[in-house]
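pasting for ref. prot 1 ->
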Amino acid sequence: MSHKSLRIVFDAKRLFHNREGLGSYARTLVSSMQALSPQHTYYLCTPDLGNNAYAKDFLDTEKYQHITAPASANKSVWRTKGIVKDLKQHNIDVYWGLSNELPIGIKKISCKTIVTIHDLFYKHYPQQFGLLDRWVVNKKYRYAVNAANRIIVASQHTRRDLIDAFPSVSGRTEVLYQSTLYEGWKPQVDATAEPYYLMVGSLTPRKNLELVVNTYAKLPIAERLKVRVVGRHTKYADDIKSKMARLGVEECFEFMGQVSNEALWRLYSNARALLFPSQYEGFGIPVIESLTAGVPVIGSSRSSIPEVIGKHGIVIEYDSTDSLRSAFIKLKEMKVNLLEDVDSHLKSFGKQ
C-alpha cells in the first residue's frame, strides 16, 4: 500500500455549522480518515470556523489546516467559486465536497475531485421546495456530478436514484456506507429505566412523527410507552404538539431538544426501539446508531431505510397506523431474534 502524503481538502461548512445530518456525516468521515491515515495533510475549508462545541475537536491545528474566507469576501460567493483561487495556492491533490456540491471552476485547477451525494429528495418531493430553490439545487447537483472524478453515495438506493437522474455518472459512482462515531462504544444500560421508544432527527414533516401521534391516539392507554424525541425544535414541532393536545396523547411524548453525544448514546442504549418512519432518507444515520447500541429499529419501507435496517428491525408502511401498531406487537415477540448477527450487518457499513 502506498503511503504517499496527499494534500486533501474537505468542504467543511456543514462540519462546523450543522449539529445533525450533513454535519454529523462530515465530522465522522473526516475524523476517521485523519485517524486511519495521519500521513496526509487535511485542510478544512469553510467560510468561517464558528463557535460550536460539537466541532471543537476540528480546531486542532496539529491535525487540520483551515482555509477560511477573507474578511472582505462575500462568504456565499467565496464558497461557491472564490475558494478555487485559495485551493490553487495550496497546491492541493484532492478536493472532497461533502455536501452535494463542488465549487464552480474547480475543473480549471489540477486536482482530483470527489463529491458526496446524500440523496435526491428535491427530485422526489419537489413540492417541498420553492421553484427558485429547486432550480438552484438542481444546478449545483448537475455541476457537481459532471465535474467530479468520483461520486460517493451512501446507499444502493441513492446510487440508483442518482443514475436515473444523471445516467452519465454510472461508471464514476461508488457506494460508501456511512459510519458512526459510536463505533466501539459500550451500551450504557440502566436496568431501572422505564421502557420507551426513541425518535432522533430534525423535527420536520419528512421524519413523520405525525404517524406515531396518530397511532398513539388509537392505542389503549396501557400500550402507550413514552416516546422520547431528540432533535432541533422547529415550527413543525409546535404544530405537532397542538395535534397531540387535540388527540389527548401529549403526555406520551417528551421533547428532549438537542442533546450531547453522551446523552444520546444513553438514550439509544435504553430504548425499546428506535422509531424511524421517515418519508425519505439517503441513508439514515440514526438507524445505524441504534443498531450499534444493540437496539432494533421500526422504520418505513421508503427509500434506503430497509437497506440500512437489514433484518434487524421491522419495516412498516409509511402512512399506516395499523402497520405501526402491528410492529409494536411484533417487537415484543421478536426482539431477541431481530438482533442476531447485528455485528456482521454493521461491518458492511462503517467498517468497510
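and prot 2 ->
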Amino acid sequence: MASADAVRAGRAALLDLLADLLLRELEMPLAAQLAADPTLAEVLNPPTEVEALSALRAEYTRLLVLDLPPYSSVFLDMPPVIGGDAALRWEQTLAGLGLRLPALERAAAPDHAGLILQALAAAERASHAAALLPMALAWLPQWLTALRRDAEETFYGRVAALAVVALGETTQAAGAPVLLAAGASAPAPGEPEERDLRTLSRWLCTPASSGWLLSKRRLRLLVRPFGGGLGIVDRDQMLQQVFEASGLDGRTDELLAALRAELETWQAALHAWRETLGDWKIALDPWAARLAATDALLAQMHAAAQAAEAG
C-alpha cells in the first residue's frame, strides 16, 4: 500500500500536469508521454499526429484565449476584468501562506486556472492545500463546467473532466473545511436595477451576477432558430442582438425557454459538483445563489413577455 506521502505526491503531480495542459498548447513531446502512459492515454486520448496537434492548438486558442478566459476575476469581479480584485486577493493569499507565486509564463494574470492548479500542487506537497481551496473552489467549478460544455468530447473536455476528479480528490484529502476564507468569493448581487435589454444582457453575461458563462459558441447556438448572424461583438452585445431578433418575430418566449434549458444544465452541473466536493460543497453556495438569481430573473422576464403579448 502506498504511503500517505506518496499518495499526496501523486495528487500534486496530477495537478501539475493539468496546470501544464492549461497553460500552453499541447506539443508532440508531452503528447507522446501522455500516450505512453496507459492510464492517461485512456483518460485523455491525446492526439499524436502532427495535423491533429495543429488543429488542437487552434482549439486551445479558441477556448482558453478567446472564448473562455481562465481567470478568477472573470468569474468573481464586476465588471469582469482580467487582473481585477480577485487576482489581487489570490496574490495576497499566496503571500500570506509564504508560497512563491508561480511564473506567469503565458498567463496574463496570476489568477489563471493553470497557475492556481500549480499553487495547489505546491500546497499539496506542503500539506496545506485546505488553505487555498476556498479561493480555488470559488470559481474553478464554474470555469471547468463552461470548458466541458464547450469542448464536449474533445481533448480539452477530457482535461476538464480530469481536473474535476483531481479537485475532488484534493478536497477529500483536505478534510472538512473549518472556515472559508473571507473574500474568497463574492456574494450574489441583486437583480439588475434597469430592465432594458442592454442591462439585462450584460447582467446575464456576467458570471459574478448570473453564475454561468454564456460563451460565444453557446450564444451562436441560441440564435440559430431566429435567423441571421451575430457580429464580432462582446457576449452581452451578442445576447442583446438575440433578444432583439426574437422580439421582432414575437418569439421571445421561445428564446427564454432556451435560456432556461441552458440554465438547467448549469444547475445539474452544480449538483454534480456538490456530490464531488463532499464537505467542501459549502464553497459552492455563492455559485448556487447566482444561478438561483438567474432562474428568478428569467422567470420574471417570461412573465413580462407574456403580459406584453396579452396586452
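The mean pLDDT is 87.
Residues 19 and 114 are 4 Å apart (CA to CA).
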